[in-house]
Amino acid sequence: MSIEQENHHPGDSRFFSKSGPYTIETLVKETGAQLNSPDVLTKDIQYTGIAPLQIASSSEVSFLDNKRYLPLLAQTKAGVVIVAPAFADKVPQTSHALVTSNPYLAWARVATLFYPKTPAKPGVHPTAYIHPDAVIHPSVEVQAFAVVMNGVHINKECIIGAHSVIEQGVQIGQYCRIGNHVSLSHAVLGDRVTLYSGARIGQDGFGFAIGEQGFVSIPQIGKVILKNDVEVGANSTIDRGSVKDTIIGEGSRLDNLVQIGHNVEMGRCCIVVSQAGISGSTQLGDFVTIAAQAGLIGHIHIGDHARVGAQCGVMSDVEAKSDVIGSPAMPFKEFFKNVAFLRRMAKSSKGKEDSQK
Amino acid sequence: MSIEQENHHPGDSRFFSKSGPYTIETLVKETGAQLNSPDVLTKDIQYTGIAPLQIASSSEVSFLDNKRYLPLLAQTKAGVVIVAPAFADKVPQTSHALVTSNPYLAWARVATLFYPKTPAKPGVHPTAYIHPDAVIHPSVEVQAFAVVMNGVHINKECIIGAHSVIEQGVQIGQYCRIGNHVSLSHAVLGDRVTLYSGARIGQDGFGFAIGEQGFVSIPQIGKVILKNDVEVGANSTIDRGSVKDTIIGEGSRLDNLVQIGHNVEMGRCCIVVSQAGISGSTQLGDFVTIAAQAGLIGHIHIGDHARVGAQCGVMSDVEAKSDVIGSPAMPFKEFFKNVAFLRRMAKSSKGKEDSQK
Amino acid sequence: MSIEQENHHPGDSRFFSKSGPYTIETLVKETGAQLNSPDVLTKDIQYTGIAPLQIASSSEVSFLDNKRYLPLLAQTKAGVVIVAPAFADKVPQTSHALVTSNPYLAWARVATLFYPKTPAKPGVHPTAYIHPDAVIHPSVEVQAFAVVMNGVHINKECIIGAHSVIEQGVQIGQYCRIGNHVSLSHAVLGDRVTLYSGARIGQDGFGFAIGEQGFVSIPQIGKVILKNDVEVGANSTIDRGSVKDTIIGEGSRLDNLVQIGHNVEMGRCCIVVSQAGISGSTQLGDFVTIAAQAGLIGHIHIGDHARVGAQCGVMSDVEAKSDVIGSPAMPFKEFFKNVAFLRRMAKSSKGKEDSQK
């Protein structure tokens, strides 16, 4: 088959196994959404899967998450559509509407119903290397060529991906998922921590003094603490602390290619989007968002619920609940005002120059 | 031998094996270039290799690709030099000139003549783990400790690098080259696809809803499609689609440490330079160039042949054939005008302040 | 034990083994610092370890490196504190002060005394794959599942981390430390080179010509030279040269997720902080600092001791000893003057608009 003929329907059976089918009652119960059913539609159908608006069939569930895609809603053939109240009356008469103030959350619930997480398959792959002084719960799945060193504890129902290396003394809670090719050292993980492929956790921080003969490394003797429900994206790097610990707070999520310097402390439910970097000893409160490619210098404090925009360069403390962007960082409003002002002035300056010729 | 005594001649025999020698006729035929031969030079020489202008010998071929290096051309001892017509008369009388409107392409052809790609050495390394339900063409080379899971198909003359993990169901076309330490899941690859070491293809996108208790992951049930002749650089990351597919178009090339979010669709022959990032659901046309460290937000469209400058922050659609730079993105001309205006104004403002003291 | 009860004292015995104890005389001798001892304190105590100011006990050594943390000095219970002369009189009467003009260097010496580098444990792990034509000194430690190919030479007391792949012909000096999951090809390493986990060294540079049918790869036939004492951070990428070599000078240190393009040449003791990128053929002098997320275009020259600020976009040569920041790069002073000017002007412009309403 040519690659141009690939079917783009989600849930490709080569990669995913599906649960279900489910009735509309189950979907209502799972989501807590309100059901708006056109009179012409029966509620007896068994829904078999999920799909985006433009390709969903009458036995599939879809959703609207972005008003950009409203034109697709008008034309959808989906049997069920999850929407916010504002768009409930835009759902066509051929679809049941599941109306909820948090459609994305409802979608997460329905999608998980059809595509639940694959549980750990207990057992150690015969090619893995397990040090005799490692303690691994019998329900844990250890995949091919994984390495688990002495003093490691792995709690129940974890998955240790192929080719991952868990170094001496690392502690891993329950239900953690370590992807492929992960390097994990000098670290303590809570429960349900997920590390994606190629994450590097616990290596030496970038710490050195300037000596007579060149740089002199400073032993980095802290560790990394990843609290419950933390997720770390593919190829992201988290250095261990120098004399303190690097701490990622409960439920925080880091995207791919993120850099976290030594001694960083992050609160609960922070979001760090791809290619952002946080320098050493900087502290984040709870619910802080750091957008893509933003950079924070070291030794500063970001308050709870602050939002740092994409590509922002943060050189000083950021107050709680404030939104900053630009390099150097400034309030959102100021940034866009400056941009508009500069554009206007440069244009009128150009006009003057032209008229003076 | 001290590292300071390392020879910097290209094609070090510890790492490369060379073909040839070749006559000037072969070089002319291979490149389609026009030969300008000084009367004093014989055409009988066998050329043995390639080298940069400053170190090439009379039996080697060189080229000029950047006028910055014109002073080196004047002094070169290369037997043959590939140049654009504009510089043909700058080639010294001791060199044959191969004159062509695309010297870099001619150089590619000559370099490939001397240093052809190493073909796959058929066979599976005894340390590799191949699932019994994988289908691998007998001409494929599988290197040490590679893992190939169930349902994988690998077509003819591919190379699967040491320590790479090919997860369940992945489809790989002909003549693909998967580097070392690659993680490849939920993906379909065309022919002649090249993935460099540490590339992470097919992991979950950064998708979650905000629930009462923290973030709730949304199952990511799309895949990654890498069409014919795609190349992905070292340690780059491409997330699989959420309910659609992430698609990289034919011939597109991604450099190192690039991030591609879920559902991104890229057309033919796009270039994404190192450390650039493209957020979820953004679409690129054909022949788009994204320079180094640029960032694109999600859900926007970049037209054919558009060029996005280095470190550019793109927050809205970009028209076909336009050039943008800056953060936020603006036309090249406007950006540099703004920069010059601000510099001028800030300087004169400083002058005023000083004169008022 | 709950993860919330984790002890944050440095030097956790699950991960680190400690030397000592040491007397104050040993600390003085090791650091060359001047001892200021309050009369009330005995010099007979054996110091058992190191810790930050806020948690150090009377048998531990601490230090002050950043005046931000002066309040912690006033309250410390540390038995010994390393400080600069300016803060010597701020050390409480319950602590010996070790006074030196370079406290961070003294700290490095003391920390290394308590936590010396673990030496190589000679031997090849039974799961590693060593090609019969590799030459490995008997004092070298090769960890689990490492791959060492033909023509490789590894000199004495190196450590080759688990899952690393050392490709054909690579030369490695003495006392090098290759982390886990490193890909190393087409490279020559001096002595005491350190590569952190997931570093990708020696892959093809991003070089291709534009042909009629799409892009045409140019064989990359240079190598990578990492001179003595170079360090490369986790998941960083260094492409090999095209027709020259990519060279990292003696003692230079690269942080995590750094990109180095083909043919880059870097002098001695340069610093490249995380997520910075240097494009092809750019040259750095000695003692150059490139801060986090900065980007340099190709074919430019950065003079000795120049400093490039965080997120800086460098599009042209930078003179020796100069400091630049901004995108495009400009002198530090000009950048911050421009920022202040724009802020002031945009504000007053806003004022005018408001008063005209």
Structural summary, described in words:
Three copies of one chain form a homotrimer. Chain A is an alpha/beta fold. Helices cover 14% and strands 25% of the residues of chain A. In chain A, the strands form five sheets. Chain A has a twelve-stranded mixed β-sheet with strand order 6-9-12-15-18-23-26-29-32-35-37-38. In chain A, strands 7-10-13-16-19-24-27-30-33-36 form a ten-stranded parallel β-sheet, with no helix packed on it. In chain A, strand 20 (208-211) and strand 21 (214-217) form a beta hairpin. The radius of gyration of chain A is 25 Å and the shape is flat. The relative contact order of chain A is 0.06. Chains in contact: A-B, A-C, B-C. At the A-B interface, helix 3 and helix 4 of A face strand 20, strand 21 and helix 4 of B. Chains A, B, C: One of its GO terms (molecular function) is UDP-3-O-[(3R)-3-hydroxyacyl]-glucosamine N-acyltransferase activity.
